[in-house]
Design brief:
Length: 373
């Protein structure tokens, strides 16, 4: 197993082999070790692999680099999460351009039942900061991890307030995990490690170069169920993250602001163009995301299921959704219910007609709103 992890990392460092191609190689060959054991003629049959890439793989020159990286990770108490690991974030696995490897540090749960990202301008106003504080305070009841990018402004304010109220908070870096940027946020990053932590797809020593941040933003968008944009200009990282989140079929929310205010223009634009739900309070989030469930409601749901005319398999599906409390991908539901995808699709359609289940973008399913009231 350790040898395969080394081979995975070595493959990751091969020039020209990005996350998509790496996953494809492993899919065709069965494992990273088998990729390196393959013959050139076999590699050339894999889509995207040409003679140069095949020669680079078979040269095996990146194994020394991989060994150094693993050694440094152990020394720095950094965990390397590979795409093939069972605890790799399930939300990211559902995204085609997800990273193949994540460097993580801290006490993280990247597969929490609910996750919210909060992003916004680096030039946060008093209004924006007040919105962050109120939102995070209202999210305490859900114990939801707060994901952001450790940047100036809204990002760092979100991390600080999550720490303050005891919510887990996760920072996604656009640099190596040993290169905290900006430097002035090192203390906050350190405090996050006990309840949350920091993650990146970049190798040790990677500098916070500009091209790394759009890539960082896709991880922020991919890790969350919902993303809240609080203050954003017409152009900038927050809007890029929102656009990416929309492309991933995530639920995007935007806090409205005063007309004419530079840092409200981006949020107002997202709402005007139907690229974000209007966010006025956490109740909006709870309604759209089906998050108003509580323990008493759960008992009512169980009772209504028991008294219904549903089949045993339909009851099993509803119970799986109830326990999760949040919409989940159909693939994950198939795994948890142990019902084959083809049959599951038919059962879900029947449950949707019966009013028990709601179909959401991105092949996600959750209990209908009536079951949370």
């Amino acid at each position: 197993m350790e040898q395969d992890r080394l081979a995975f990392l070595a493959l990751h460092f091969v020039p020209g082999i990005g996350p998509l191609l790496l996953k494809q190689l492993i899919s065709y060959c069965g494992s990273a070790e088998r990729v390196f054991a393959s013959k050139k003629t076999q590699l050339l049959k894999i889509p995207g692999i040409g003679p140069v890439a095949a020669d680079s793989i078979l040269a095996k020159e990146t194994f020394a680099l991989a060994e150094k990286e693993l050694s440094k990770a152990e020394k720095e108490e950094v965990n390397l999460l590979l795409y093939t690991d069972k605890n790799f974030p399930s939300r990211l696995k559902a995204i085609e351009d997800a990273p193949a490897i994540l460097y993580t540090k801290g006490n993280l749960n990247l597969n929490a039942p609910k996750t919210v990202a909060i992003v916004g301008t680096r030039q946060a106003t008093a209004y924006g900061k007040a919105c962050v504080e109120k939102i995070i305070e209202d999210l305490i009841t859900h114990q939801v991890p707060i994901v952001s990018g450790l940047a100036y402004g809204i990002d760092i304010h979100a991390h600080k307030n999550a720490i303050k109220v005891g919510l887990p908070t996760i920072a996604v870096l656009g640099s190596g995990i040993d290169v905290i940027y900006p430097d002035s946020h090192k203390d906050v990053a350190k405090k996050m490690l006990s309840n949350g932590g920091i993650i990146t797809e970049n190798a040790f020593g990677t500098k916070p170069d500009a091209h790394n941040f759009p890539a960082r933003n896709r991880i922020i968008a991919g890790l969350c169920d919902a993303i809240i944009v609080i203050e954003a200009a017409e152009k900038g990282g927050a809007l890029i993250t929102a656009e990416i989140a929309n492309s991933y079929n995530k639920d995007v929310f935007a806090v409205p602001g005063n007309l004419g205010n530079t840092y409200s223009a981006g949020c107002n634009f997202l709402i005007k163009t139907n690229k974000a739900n209007l966010f006025t309070s956490v109740k909006d989030l709870e309604y759209i995301m089906n998050w108003n469930a509580n323990s008493s409601n759960s008992k009512n749901i169980s009772s209504s299921i028991a008294q219904s005319n549903l089949t045993d398999e339909e009851k099993l599906i509803v119970e799986c959704l109830r326990k999760r409390e949040v919409p989940i991908m159909i693939d994950q539901l198939s795994i948890e219910s142990e019902i084959p995808l083809g049959k599951l699709s038919s059962l879900l359609l029947s449950l949707e007609f019966s009013g028990f289940v709601t179909s959401l973008p991105g092949k996600r399913y959750g209990l209908s709103h009536r079951n949370y009231r």
